[in-house]
Amino acid sequence: DRVYEELENRFPEIVFVRCFMDPIMQKHGLTPDQKLRKALYDPVEKKSPDEKVVTLVGNDFALDETCDIKRLLRSGGYTLKELTACTNWEEYQELGSGKMLISCYPPAKYGAEMLAERLQRTHLYLPGSFDYEEIEQQLKQLTDALGLPEVSREALDVERSACEEVLAKAKALIKDMPITLDYLYHPRPLGLAKLLLTHGFNVKAVYLDGISPEEKAAFDWLQEHVPELELIATIQ
């Protein structure tokens, strides 16, 4: 605190963000990743909410233009603000104009909740999922929160069919090639394993250090239907 105080006194034109490296293996409480993602938004100032702006918090990359969230917001005339798309300080500060905050990445949830509380905004946690029912339920959460028309059953069925078609093409290309998944690719590796296994892919192992509560249903399904699937600690 003393160091930061001195820096801020000497360089008042610079905003210093408190980001601490924590090399100790933590077993409880907030992780360094959670604390870092919160700190990245600490300098965002509260602005009058823009009724047509939504802010996405805590992602490593900007959402793809084909993402469900982006397409849904576009259809309702909304603009999505993301830190990963900002090119200058002014754009960064515009993150505070969103009337609602969305987070999709589990380690970002804490920071998004703290920011929403500070800015007095609504926060929706819509984690990336490989389960059709969960995805559709999240889309309904989003349309309800924004007062948009609910996505029709017909449109949802079209999306499912398109996904099934791409999975079939991938399976035809990969055939029976053995597959190993790493949790660093996606925070729900067990959900991905279940999706692939139910579509005939030859998933052999998953590298992960723990099982998230969000993955309990997928874990239980795998334990019952694919008991030979290996779950391996990343230290190995």
Give me a quick take on this structure.
With 236 residues, the protein is α/β, with parallel strands linked by helices. The chain has nine helices and seven strands, in the order ααβαβαβαβααβαβαβ. The model has no long low-confidence stretch (mean pLDDT 95).
Give a written overview of the molecule.
The protein is an alpha/beta fold. The chain has 9 helices and 7 strands. The longest helix is centred in the last third of the chain and has 22 residues, at 153-174. Helix 2 packs parallel to helix 5 (109-119). It is globular. It has helices spanning 2-10, 32-39, 68-75, 89-93, 109-119, 132-146, 153-174, 189-197, 216-225, and strands spanning 50-57, 79-82, 98-103, 122-125, 179-182, 203-207, 230-232. The mean pLDDT is 95.
Q: How large is the count of helical segments?
A: 9
Structural class: alpha/beta
- What is the chains' assembly state? single chain
Please tally the β strands and state the result.
7
